[in-house]
Structures are given as C-alpha cells and as structure tokens.
Design a protein that fits this description.
Order of helices and strands: EEHEEEEE
Number of strands: 7
Largest sheet: 3 strands, mixed
Number of helices: 1
Helix content: under 10%
Strand content: 35-45%
Number of domains: 1
Strand order of the largest sheet: 1-5-6
Radius of gyration: 13 Å
C-alpha cells in the first residue's frame, strides 16, 4: 500500500475526501499505554492514490492527520492540519 508518512508536518491536497471513510472505517483506538491503533482497509484505496499520515505537534503531545492524496500531486504541507470543512 503506497503511503506518505511525515513527522512534524501534514501534507494534503485541499478539498473534501469522500473515499477516506471507506479506507478508515472506524475511529482510532487509544490504548492505555498511549499507543493508537487504526484499522486501514487497503483494498478501498483506489489505484493512483496514496495514504498520507502526518504527525504534528500540539500543546502537550502530538496529533495525527490522515488523508488520501493522488500519486505525484502537488501537496500543501504545513505544521498543522487544515481546518475541517464546514457543512
């Protein structure tokens, strides 16, 4: 499964991502020891798309931003994730 993993920044393409709920069908599990477990469905990732996982720093720890990006796309990379879309 192609993936882009970054530390200290998140990389994404602007806009909504309708396929992501199929790739990550349930929220992450936060284990008592601090680990986070996320179930990924690789077969739901279309060809030509890769999973982007960014670890970024927040007060008191870190955050995780997960999205899908087209292979070889021009990405926006920042120290924090984009604001969620308004509905």
């Amino acid at each position: 499964m192609p993936a882009l993993v970054t530390a200290g920044k998140v990389c994404y393409v602007p806009g909504p991502n309708a396929i992501l709920p199929q790739v990550l069908p349930s929220p992450p599990q936060h284990l008592p020891d601090g680990r986070i477990v996320w179930i990924i469905t690789p077969s739901a990732i279309p060809q030509g798309i890769e999973l982007s996982i960014g670890y970024y720093y927040v007060a008191g720890g870190f955050g995780i931003h997960v999205t899908l990006v087209p292979d070889h796309a021009v990405l926006t990379c920042t120290a924090s994730p984009p604001a969620p879309p308004h509905r």
